[in-house]
Amino acid sequence: MEGDRPRFQRIYICLAACKKGFLDGCRPVVCLDGCHVKGPHPGQVLSAMGVDANNGMFPLAYAYVEIESNSTWLWFLELLSGDLNITNSHGYVFMTDKQKGLIDAVDTLFPQAEHRHCLKHLYGNFYLEHRGLALKHQMEAIARATTVPWFHAEMTKMLQLSKPAHDWLMEKDPRHWSRAYFKSDSKCDMLMNNLCEAFNRSILDARDKPILTMLERIRLYIMLLMAGRRVLCEKWHGQVGPRIRKILEKNKAKAQWCIPKAAGQNQFEVMHHSGRTFAVDLNGHSCSCHAWDLNGIPCLHACAAISWFHGNPEDFCDAVYKKEAYLRAYQPMIMPMTSQDQWMKVNLPPLLPPKYHKQPGRPKKTRKQAVEEPKLPSNPYKLPRYGIPLKCANCGGEGHNRSSCKEPRNPNIKPTRKRNIAKDKLAVRRRDGGDQSGGQQSMQLRQRKQSSTSQGPSQSQASQVAAASLSQPSEAADAFQSQPSQTPEPAKLSRVQQRRKRMKDQQRSHFVKDPFFHP
């Protein structure tokens, strides 16, 4: 409040259709993230996303706040907890990144929930101290390990590559970033917070608009998203979505390298071509590799066991991936709204706009790239020189070129090709009678060429003969007498004229071949 008039500070929106769809058809997984607002009133958009039956983004709630901090995240999560009626956070999974105050807010409000950190942002911190493609791939292998023995085996490989990198990872709690320590209640094995990133990308055009316009565009986007997916679900071929079917197809292709052996009561011992053996229980939807337990989708060992009796792997997928769960999530409809001029008037004082905070520097329109992201080349048509050190052609040192070299010239370095060409030109000029005379001769020849191009072809030949007669009169006369009488050559056409002539010839040939054409 400023005097008698209130001032706008922040707003939280959770649509009833999104709330009901999340509770009825989505898994208890909530992804949290924030993005910048670049309109006339800078701020932050905090968003909470769910995961639908097709492993897609399900918008749950969003809010506009003046700044991203621990207090604003606490305010947002308290309202979200009230809408979802979360009294006991056991069984919920919250996926976050390194946002300001977000990790502490989740630990404070949901102490019993599983808290996962985005692997991409975790690698961003890892990249600042330990760089290299081998370390990156090894860190991803550690995060994707589904059993504790495999986790320790991959950590041993990291120790062999780099001990500081191994010590850095040992300081992090593996329950936040490795599948080997994830709980299997949520049937979700996501490692990255891509769902919130996709939502931030979808509302990119609305984030540079005024607050009311931005919120209205976000509501319209969610309404169209739910309506479109409700229609597309009717075109599914099978019990699961296209993304889940694609995962099953990959697992069935890998299952060809496995040999299942039935033990009875839908329990199998599956031998992989690598020599490892796994125990599969089809009744309990479990495998000793722990992949089926985590995500609820039959792994390659389970697909091999199912193929033993010619079964369908879609029948063994968890119920959260079925078409019925997808329809329950998108069945609620967001009702259409009228424009602002048709709203009812209320006898309340109008809100003051939020205080304008002018940011230092020029406003940025592009996203700030992370440290590990590849930088775009200045010239996309030039291939980068990987592994080739930059060497100076002046002093012979590395790390700079000749244009920025400040050292004296090294006489032991051979001159480059440009220097050789310059020396050759200088030697020719001196041989012809000096630099000044050579320059005058080249200028005279240039003027003669220009005059010959402006004149006709016969005049150009005569000028060439006259020029030759000036230098060598006897040879020029002999050449003129010995030259046969020929028709003048046509002037050369430009590329545009050649193309036009070619098109006319093609059209003319087409008309000639046409039997119904009468010129």
Automatic annotation (TrEMBL):
<feature type="domain" description="CCHC-type">
    <location>
        <begin position="391"/>
        <end position="407"/>
    </location>
</feature>
<keyword id="KW-0862">Zinc</keyword>
<keyword id="KW-0479">Metal-binding</keyword>
<feature type="compositionally biased region" description="Basic and acidic residues">
    <location>
        <begin position="399"/>
        <end position="409"/>
    </location>
</feature>
<feature type="region of interest" description="Disordered">
    <location>
        <begin position="350"/>
        <end position="382"/>
    </location>
</feature>
<feature type="region of interest" description="Disordered">
    <location>
        <begin position="398"/>
        <end position="519"/>
    </location>
</feature>
<feature type="compositionally biased region" description="Low complexity">
    <location>
        <begin position="450"/>
        <end position="474"/>
    </location>
</feature>
<feature type="domain" description="SWIM-type">
    <location>
        <begin position="278"/>
        <end position="310"/>
    </location>
</feature>
<dbReference type="Pfam" id="PF04434">
    <property type="entry name" value="SWIM"/>
</dbReference>
<feature type="compositionally biased region" description="Basic and acidic residues">
    <location>
        <begin position="504"/>
        <end position="519"/>
    </location>
</feature>
<dbReference type="InterPro" id="IPR007527">
    <property type="entry name" value="Znf_SWIM"/>
</dbReference>
<feature type="compositionally biased region" description="Basic and acidic residues">
    <location>
        <begin position="421"/>
        <end position="434"/>
    </location>
</feature>
<dbReference type="InterPro" id="IPR006564">
    <property type="entry name" value="Znf_PMZ"/>
</dbReference>
<keyword id="KW-0863">Zinc-finger</keyword>
<protein>
    <submittedName>
        <fullName>Uncharacterized protein LOC103335948</fullName>
    </submittedName>
</protein>
<dbReference type="InterPro" id="IPR018289">
    <property type="entry name" value="MULE_transposase_dom"/>
</dbReference>
<feature type="compositionally biased region" description="Basic residues">
    <location>
        <begin position="355"/>
        <end position="368"/>
    </location>
</feature>
<dbReference type="InterPro" id="IPR001878">
    <property type="entry name" value="Znf_CCHC"/>
</dbReference>
<dbReference type="Pfam" id="PF10551">
    <property type="entry name" value="MULE"/>
</dbReference>
